[in-house]
Write a structure and sequence with these properties.
121 residues, mainly alpha, 71% helix
């Protein structure tokens, strides 16, 4: 998954031989690099073209991934296009679940409420 220009010459030659021997792997690598660029550069509008190409040309695992993306299309496109992230919210949810699991069955609601509302050190 590295960018081709960052590979050492010895690895690049070995990779070229592998990709020549397995065309499906070469297609999968190309599609993976393209998807990575779409995600990294927040080009959600390019996803339609990528999904069509993946469904048409990609190996079966890539086709399955592309088909899965279509299940919640608007969320996927917005996640790859908009600058906002739910990462902070997801972090808090994970923290609360950890507190809940750690004290499951041993703490009263008042104690759980205090632990959840208390700021971590």
């Amino acid at each position: 998954m590295r960018r081709p220009d960052t590979l050492p010459d010895s690895h690049r030659g070995q990779l070229d031989r592998i990709l020549d021997a397995c065309p499906d792997l070469a297609t999968a690598r190309e599609l993976a690099h393209e998807f990575s660029a779409i995600a990294r550069e927040r080009r959600g509008h390019d996803l339609t073209h990528w999904v069509a190409r993946a469904l048409d040309q990609g190996p079966q695992p890539i086709q399955g991934f592309a088909a899965f993306l279509q299940n919640d299309w608007d969320a996927v496109v917005n996640g790859l296009a908009l600058q906002w992230s739910s990462g902070a919210v997801e972090g808090q949810v994970t923290r609360i679940k950890l507190i809940k699991r750690r004290s499951y069955g041993r703490a009263s609601f008042a104690l759980l409420r205090t632990l959840v509302l208390a700021r971590p050190p």
